[in-house]
Amino acid sequence: MSEIYFVCREDRQMLDKLLGEIPGLIDDLAITICRQDRTGKGGMKISSGSDEQPMPFNVGASDAGDHLRNELNTWARLVCEERFISYDGSDSVAGVSVWLRKNLASLAMTQGAEDALPGIESAMKRCRRAMDIPPEDEVAWDPEKLEEARGSELNAAAIALMRHQLGAEDLNARRVETLRKAGKLEPVRLVACGKRTIAVYRLGDVLDAHEQFPCRQRKMSA
Fold first, then answer.
1. Which of 20, 61, 90, 150 is the S-S candidate for 204 at Cβ 3.0 to 4.6 Å?
2. What three-state secondary structure class fits 198?
3. How far is it, in rounded angstroms, from Cα 108 to Cα 87?
């Protein structure tokens, strides 16, 4: 098989960075899709008699997620076909992004791959635009309110939803779970929810761990 790269080194590095961001992006997008209070602020509504009710999910965010899924699936399929390899990742968007990152060299050697970076970057930007929060919700809490909230017990998704008010922009659900897996954070309890078990954390513990153990991205930008 040809060893010619159709993607330059700089673009390969950028692709590696973007693909690594997708799992966290998908966590945040899932919160937006199911967030009724956002769609209620001028978003799409459905009528029920004489009263209008917000739709139970954010259509724009859902469409953006589907677009990203299709973009990643297209490249994974092309790599498998052109490089004669089998797909062994999961079916989730995050799973496909992990697989593409793991097989980045094969992607770069796939004819037409020069379009991968702009295509994936555009799809990710669409997801981020769909998650834009109104300016009034981005105002960080004052120290007194933040101190009162530290004793609250919340799951990772709820904490990520509040990250703008907390003044911790990169504290998404994936970051919380990463801290837990690294042994830097322990849940106060586990709650059974159908077939799933949801971890509940004390907000103060999460903020302390997030500050004491910076993630790589924060270290690089420091």
1. 150
2. strand
3. 16
* pTM summary value: 0.58
Q: How far apart are CA 204 and CA 151, in angstroms?
A: 6
How many C-beta atoms surround the C-beta of residue 112 within 10 A? 10
Say if CB 171 and CB 206 are below 8 A apart.
yes
The SS3 of residue 112 is: coil
Percentage of residues in the chain with pLDDT exceeding 70? 77
Backbone angles phi, psi at 59, to 5 degrees: -65, -40
pLDDT value of residue 43: 39
Residues 6+ apart with CB under 8 A from 7: 15, 107, 108, 113, 114, 116, 117
Contacts of 182 (CB under 8 A, 6+ apart): 213
Q: What is the pLDDT of residues 127-150, one digit of tens each?
A: 988 876 554 445 677 888 888 889
How many other C-beta atoms lie within 10 A of the C-beta of residue 149?
A: 16
Name the token pair of 122: 């555009």
Could you give the CA distance from residue 89 to residue 29 in angstroms, rounded to a whole number?
A: 21
Greatest pairwise CA separation for the chain in angstroms: 65
Q: 176: pLDDT confidence band, cut at 50, 70 and 90?
A: very high
